Amino acid sequence: MNKYAVVWLICFITLASSFSVAQTAAIDSLKKEFTQQTDDAKKLAALVSLCNYHQSINKDSLYAYALMANSLSAKTKTNSTAAAIILANAYLRMGKTDSALSIAETNLTTNTVANPATRPFYFTLSAIKADCFGDAANYTDALAQLYKIISEAETYNDPIVLAKNINTIGVIQYNLDHVPEAFNWYFKGLSYTSPTPGFAAVTGALYINLAETYRWVGKTDSATYFIDKAIPLCTQSQNLFFLGNAIRVKASIYKQQKDYAKAEETMLASIAIKEKLEGKLRFSNEQIALANIYMNAGLYDKAIAMLNRALAEDKDETKADALIISYYSTLAKCYHQKGDTKNYTSTLEKIIGAKDAFYEANSAQAIAELQTKYELQKKEKTIIQQKLNLTVKNYWLYGSALFAAMMIIIVWLGFKNYRRKQDVKMQLALQEEKRIAAQSVVDAEEQERKRIAADLHDNIGAYASAIRADVEKITDNGFEKNHDSLQNLQQHSQEIINSLRDTIWVLNKEHITITGIGDRIKNYINKLQPTYSHIIFQVDEDISNDARLSSKHALAIFRIVQEAIHNALKHSNASNLKIEIHSAANIRFTIADDGKGIENITGNATGNGLLNMKARAKDAGMQLEILSPNNKGTSLVLTSTTN
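Above: the chain sequence. Below: its structure as tokens.
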């Protein structure tokens, strides 16, 4: 960290402690101007100027200003849209997204993009509408709105609007864990900025988000470079919201450098800024970052208490919110590192439920379709513009000479005839493509049928056999002597339900990460452990690259691991069972036991279970190897064949 960055940080921490006296120089000056005005129209104009700094004003004060602005607007019959925007921003800060959305949609009907006088209001109201969707975790509608805004901003060549809304798209991609896409949008946003003062706020925001994303992928030097560029810009623009975010990222960098004392001090300064703006924080990125600092410093109880206090205020544990998922994920890590297996298992269940709700609300396919639609609209607009330019040129050419006009007509007729022939060829090609696509669907359905049949054999078939054995035992010995068998019967019935639920859960997703598979494996083992109390289970994870796999491949891996665990429990007479999950340049799952081993590995590889495991491994692009050295235990190793 350079000496200038140190000076900036000291200034900001000092500034955070003085907020009870002032906000920023610009806000204090505008407040003074507002209070000195006696004319209602001038008072309203001063209030509108003051609320242009709405991100740096306490949310309760902003709401009071909004009510005054709307009252003055009604009285003076002026600035109605500006007053409405202030109220919409106040509602957003208070979490009343429905009210803010209603104001934005109402005022968009009278403020159009085509009118230069109302265009700035149009872009501001459109961005508020996108923020309403984003704050409600409705990222599909938020992205649709943002793509519309940047398309219109490109038409009217407004670089500030482009940079701001492109930055918001990057934030949404980051929240959806689409890190490469987030980087692309942030750098695209920077391409529209310039070193002039008007771009200070949006450039600072882009630098903050780049720093946070680089920190997330472990590139601390790049993160430090961008955050040290962001902090002076936040001061220049006098935007306390961005300043608080910048200090939070700086604290997280200190955490990764293991300077926990400085990390805590800096994060508390960031929280102080945010609480001056928002009041007492309920859920925030700053709280999660502070909990991570405590966890990394080994202060698990302190982190757990802090996270549980915030989560206790939330009554809907399955709410589709990326921030809620981050709270549960951090809490699960704390329980795991502390060795609290009971609470760790319970938190894993909550993470699965929250992720299910989140990904259901924000389908990756729908988001990809929106981006494709946006790119297509850009191309169509370019083609329309090119055709318009060609028409203008042709108009002047027709007027220049009759001979030239006749030549153009001849060329046009020839081109039309050529297009007619091309259309015929295109129709024939489309018909052939449809036929091939239909056959591909039939083939895919047949392949899927076989795969699901294999799943049912490996899981439901195994549990059904166990149920049949328990029923025979109960019938032979009498119901009154078979309490344990009845319990087993109930357990195996539940496992059939769980197996079907796992299959449906995976098939409803487009992609699943390695950590997602790991969570499911740990949850599966936690449910098995009470039944096999004589066996010690151990799960080790080494995941530096949290790769995303298709649902088909993820389900294949999960089923192979399930089958391997089931075989070890049933046949090995083992005392210890260890599962290792490794993901870096390649992916590897290892299931090892210390049982009696396998005498003839080749001879035992002919059953339906092992054949299905090998077939699944091949379908998932992985290699399956079974090792039993000197019949001392068995290891099943599943390795990716490509990087």
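Residues 145 and 614 are 47 Å apart (CA to CA).
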